[in-house]
Write a structure and sequence with these properties.
This protein has helices at 9-29, 36-45, 74-86, 93-99, 109-112, 121-127, 163-171, 173-187, 199-206, 214-225, 229-236, 240-254, 259-272, and strands spanning 52-59, 65-70, 105-108, 134-143, 146-154. With 273 residues, the chain is α+β, with helices and mostly antiparallel strands. Residues 205-270 form the HTH luxR-type domain.
């Protein structure tokens, strides 16, 4: 008979789940307390060495609102908490996916990022530039066009979540989602969904509107979001050659020569607005 050593993946998962269930009981007991989200974050931490977390309120058409964060290194807090929530979210694949109706559940960055995202300037600036290389995401639908998101970030230590840890996170998704929904009932004040409606869509529609055609702006948006020529062609239902033609024309009109310059121009435009 084969014996299982104390450090095998099976036992590591079992021990993590034991700690998770104990922390989960504490989180449930504090769901109406001011520190409810801190207890939920503590429970999540029992499932793996999560480096940092953010819990945000996502209202359709509006900028996300930070509700809780832990573990973000001080040297990156300005970039993450100020630049991201001021404008950076407009190109974030998770935020865009939620805006476009992404269902509640658990997702890894690779599940929803466009095909060229990991070579994009956005990924280099807002992920690698802030010490993050990967992101996982719990989404809970709380009604009234609102969702709660719990983001888990890795990268500063150079380690990634193992496949086993990701599977554990997926396995507990229903319980995390239930706790987020219960927190919303007790800990969130009613929020108007009217103010700022369609601000995300408006930001994209107005960028370059004075010089670019509608199709050129669409191509620019796809490039900014991290889509390749092939992916852009498929999404817009045009040929790759047509995408390249529109890209060449919009670069000429904006007096730029690369995707990096397009990204810089878009960010500058957001800051001026």
């Amino acid at each position: 008979m084969t014996q299982t050593s104390p450090d095998t993946p099976v036992n590591l998962s079992f021990n993590a789940l034991q700690r998770w269930h104990a922390a989960l009981q504490t989180a449930c007991a504090h769901i109406e307390a001011p520190d409810a989200l801190a207890h939920l974050a503590a429970a999540i931490s029992e499932l793996g060495a999560v480096e940092s977390m953010m819990i945000s309120l996502e209202c359709r058409g509006q900028a996300p609102q930070l509700l809780y964060q832990q573990g973000i290194p001080e040297q990156h807090r300005d970039a993450v908490l100020n630049r991201y929530f001021a404008a950076g979210y407009l190109l974030d694949p998770f935020c865009l996916a939620v805006e476009n109706g992404l269902a509640q559940g658990f997702y890894h960055l690779e599940d929803i990022a466009p095909d060229n995202f990991f070579d994009s300037d956005y990924y280099k600036t807002y992920y690698l530039g802030t010490g993050c290389s990967e992101d996982s995401y719990f989404i809970a639908d709380i009604g009234d066009a609102r969702k709660l998101s719990l983001s888990l970030f890795q990268g500063c230590s150079g380690t990634r979540l193992s496949a086993e840890q990701v599977n554990l996170l997926r396995a507990v998704e229903p319980m995390v989602r239930d706790l987020l929904a219960r927190y919303a009932r007790y800990g969130l004040a009613p929020v108007s969904t009217e103010a700022g409606l369609n601000s995300i869509q408006a930001a994209f529609e107005s960028f370059g509107s004075q010089v670019l055609t509608d199709r050129e702006r669409e191509v620019a948006h796809m490039i900014l979001r991290g889509h390749s020529v092939k992916s852009t062609a498929a999404e817009l239902r045009i040929s790759p050659e047509t995408v390249r033609m529109h890209r060449k024309n919009l670069y000429l009109k904006l007096d730029i020569n690369s995707q990096s310059e397009l990204f810089a121009r878009f960010i500058d435009w957001l800051r001026q607005g």
